[in-house]
């Protein structure tokens, strides 16, 4: 009997931390427009995060989970999808959601504590942000089952963090996806921390990618700070899934550069020095360096992009802050397709109170 | 038209729903080749094929969660949980997702799923197979909770549940799966999901009950009738939403009410009915509302099960107490 599972895990990385090409680039990366598009959404995501935190700190947004440092995972994952695919993600998928056409106003609205923010006008079949850890993984399997039963060439991207891989829900979904050969790709944002619990204390599994093999499909790792690697691996896995090749799991190795959420204080469980080391790996500088080398991306281009993203986020924040509050009786109006009779009195009570307050 | 049992009526409704709507799917443990451990899905696999009758891995969270996902993308899954004792892992999916998907997306995504499970005691089943925890589900906003008590009600209520655009927990009283037979026409007619059913009319006392307890309650009504007492028996059928007007009308007529359920007394669904009667029907009441329920103990294993299950004797005794109150 051997003590360890001897499975070689593929690891994909095209750009090193300096932005130097270390492997021949995939075809899509030859087009500077595509890369600049990914870069723009990464910058937009970071700008959105900063504004969201500023709004939270000044009492104008609820608890917020930043994706700082993980922009390549979320933007690369969302950027790998076709519009007809479906995203089932958690609360750190801002970049993927922007790539999918969820608007910055919608996300501010959601994080501001308003259900209307999950009524996406763009990707109408995407699942809303799922806060309980891992319990959305079976939904991804259900959506993938729907596509398979309808013989549609569509796939689902299910995103969760390293902590979620310890959940039974995720295993149940992976196991079922494997045995039913569903068109489903699991993307693990391994940012090394589940609030205060480091990856090493989460599981004795050598990698998170190994977990796929027990479910009968392949798992691989990508450098989660290299957006080209994430986009490439996820796009390939989604294409394979759409073609009937079944699920795949991609573990993206990255690092959570800030607190878990605005309600967290990471200094209680990790030191700044370690975090500082990971700033040297962060995904935006890496791609920017590459763009400067390969496509003549200039300081002027950079400044224009930052100004453009800042203006877009400011405008979205203003629109969000100016959004008229929903009338309180709408709390009742979407619970069921039609309001059950025994709820009418409670709705009336709220209406009456609202009229009195006004 | 043949007489059929409650479980046969469920099978007939499932087949009917699958026949009339291609998006209706069956899924669960052993629902396919085996036809379900109680045979509720018997014959559906051979009739509708493997793409619509899905034997799942042994994973209750996945059964409920996949149902949420496939429902959100246009299907109408009917998921079976083998016994209520194994339903608890699905509560996360019901509370956090199924019951709120429509609300949290402002109607963009919906969850037209049915989660079926046999429940209740009295069949000498192993540990964990006999509980009645329907009140837990009735406490969840966004769900419907339906419990049939006869073959005809099972057929019509299940069809309605499958056609309903929102999630329904459909609990089947397994003790009477085969205890009662009646003629049920495969008419495709659904029954309303927001109405109680008056199973027996009477003028002296109102019994409110649901599920397998309908049998004990009807027997108690027979016994009381022999002594000249006319009891009305209301089958709740739909715990959520609750049809209070039917109950209040009845109590206005009788002035007395006994609620019968096999679930444990404390925080059982009878408490909700009693509270609403106190709030809205106090002036009709000539006696305190009394509950005949399971005891507040862990459901005993089969040897002592009969000491736990409310009997018609207990129902009659409670009724006499209420009738004698002055």
Structure at a glance:
Chain A is α/β, with parallel strands linked by helices and 358 residues long. Chain A is built from 14 helices and 8 strands. Chain A has 2 domains: 316 residues, Rossmann fold; 31 residues, no CATH class.
What do you see in this structure?
The complex is a heterodimer of chains A (358) and B (326). Chain A is α/β, with parallel strands linked by helices and 358 residues long. Chain A folds into two domains: 11-326, 3-Layer(aba) Sandwich (Rossmann fold), CATH 3.40.50.970; 328-358, no CATH class. Chain A is built from 14 helices and eight strands. In chain A, the strands form two sheets. Chain A has a six-stranded parallel β-sheet, sandwiched between helices. Chain A has a two-stranded antiparallel ribbon with strand order 5-6. In chain A, strand 5 and strand 6 form a beta hairpin. The longest helix of chain A has 26 residues, at 32-57. With 326 residues, chain B is an alpha/beta fold. Chain B has two domains: 3-183, Thiamin diphosphate (ThDP)-binding fold, Pyr/PP domains (Rossmann fold, 3-Layer(aba) Sandwich), CATH 3.40.50.970; 197-324, Rossmann fold (3-Layer(aba) Sandwich). Helix content of chain B is 37%, strand content 19%. Chain A binds chain B through residues 86, 88, 115-116, 118-120, 124-125, 127-128, 130, 132, 135-147, 149-150, 168-169, 172-173, 175-176, 179, 334-337, 340-343, and chain B through 25, 51, 56-57, 59, 61-62, 64-75, 77, 89, 92-93, 96-97, 101-110, 141-142, 164-166, 194, 241-244.
């Amino acid at each position: 009997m051997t003590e360890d599972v001897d499975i070689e895990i593929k690891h994909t990385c095209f750009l090193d931390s300096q932005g130097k090409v270390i492997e021949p680039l995939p075809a899509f990366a030859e087009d500077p427009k595509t890369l600049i598009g990914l870069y723009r959404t990464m910058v937009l995501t970071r700008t959105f995060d900063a504004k969201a935190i500023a709004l939270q700190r000044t009492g104008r947004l609820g608890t917020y989970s930043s994706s700082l440092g993980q922009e390549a995972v979320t933007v690369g994952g969302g950027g790998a999808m076709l519009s007809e695919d479906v995203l089932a993600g958690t609360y750190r998928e801002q970049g993927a959601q922007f790539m999918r056409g969820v608007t910055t106003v919608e996300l501010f609205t959601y994080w501001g504590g308003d259900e209307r923010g999950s009524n996406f006008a763009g990707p109408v079949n995407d699942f809303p942000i799922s806060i309980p850890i891992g319990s959305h993984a079976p939904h991804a399997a259900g959506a993938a089952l729907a596509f398979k039963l309808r013989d549609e060439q569509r796939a689902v991207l299910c995103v969760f963090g390293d902590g979620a891989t310890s959940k039974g829900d995720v295993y149940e979904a992976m196991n079922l996806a494997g045995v039913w050969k569903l068109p489903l790709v699991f993307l693990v944002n391994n940012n090394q921390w589940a609030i205060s619990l480091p990856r090493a204390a989460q599981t004795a599994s050598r990698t998170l990618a190994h977990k796929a093999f027990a479910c009968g499909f392949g798992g691989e790792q990508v450098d989660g700070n290299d957006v080209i690697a994430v986009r490439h691996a996820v796009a390939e896995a989604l294409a394979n899934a759409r073609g009937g090749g079944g699920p795949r799991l991609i573990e993206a190795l990255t690092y959570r550069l800030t607190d878990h959420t605005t309600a967290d204080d990471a200094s209680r469980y990790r030191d700044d020095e370690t975090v500082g080391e990971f700033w040297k790996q962060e995904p935006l500088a890496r791609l920017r360096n590459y763009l400067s080398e390969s496509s003549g991306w200039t300081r002027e281009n950079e400044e224009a992009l930052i100004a453009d993203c800042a203006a877009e986020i400011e405008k979205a924040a203003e629109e969000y802050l100016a959004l008229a509050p929903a009338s309180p009786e709408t709390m009742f109006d979407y619970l069921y397709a039609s309001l059950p009779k025994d709820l009418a009195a409670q709705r009336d009570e709220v209406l009456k109170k609202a009229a009195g307050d006004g | 038209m043949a007489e059929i049992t409650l479980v046969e009526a469920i099978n007939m409704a499932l087949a009917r729903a699958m026949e009339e709507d291609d998006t209706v799917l069956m899924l669960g443990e052993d629902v396919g080749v085996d036809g379900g451990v109680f045979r509720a899905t018997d014959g559906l696999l051979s009739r509708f094929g493997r793409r619509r009758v899905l034997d799942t891995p042994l994973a209750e969270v996945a059964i409920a969660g996949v149902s949420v996902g496939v429902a959100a993308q246009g299907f109408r899954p009917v998921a079976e949980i083998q016994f209520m004792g194994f339903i608890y892992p699905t509560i996360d999916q019901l509370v956090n997702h199924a019951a709120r998907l429509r609300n949290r997306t402002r109607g963009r995504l919906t969850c037209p799923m049915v989660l079926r499970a046999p429940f209740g005691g009295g069949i000498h089943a192993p540990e964990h197979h006999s509980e009645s925890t329907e009140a837990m589900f009735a406490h969840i906003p966004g769900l419907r909770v339906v419990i049939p008590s006869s073959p005809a009600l099972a057929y019509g209520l299940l069809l309605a549940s499958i056609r309903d655009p929102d999630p329904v927990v459909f609990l089947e009283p397994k003790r009477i799966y085969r205890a009662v037979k009646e003629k049920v026409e495969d008419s495709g007619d659904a029954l309303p999901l927001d109405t109680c059913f008056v199973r027996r009319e009477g003028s002296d006392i109102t019994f409110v009950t649901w599920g397998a307890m309908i049998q004990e309650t009807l027997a108690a009504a027979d016994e009381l009738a022999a002594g000249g007492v006319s009891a009305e028996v209301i089958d709740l059928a739909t715990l959520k939403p609750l049809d209070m007007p039917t109950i209040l009308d009845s109590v206005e007529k009788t002035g007395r009410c006994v609620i019968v359920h096999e679930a444990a007394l404390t925080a059982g669904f009878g408490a909700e009915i009693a509270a609403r009667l106190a709030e809205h029907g106090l002036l009709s009441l000539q006696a305190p509302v009394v509950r005949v329920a399971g005891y507040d103990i862990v459901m005993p294993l089969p040897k002592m099960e009969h000491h736990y299950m409310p009997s018609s004797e207990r129902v009659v005794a409670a009724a006499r107490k209420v009738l004698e109150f002055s």
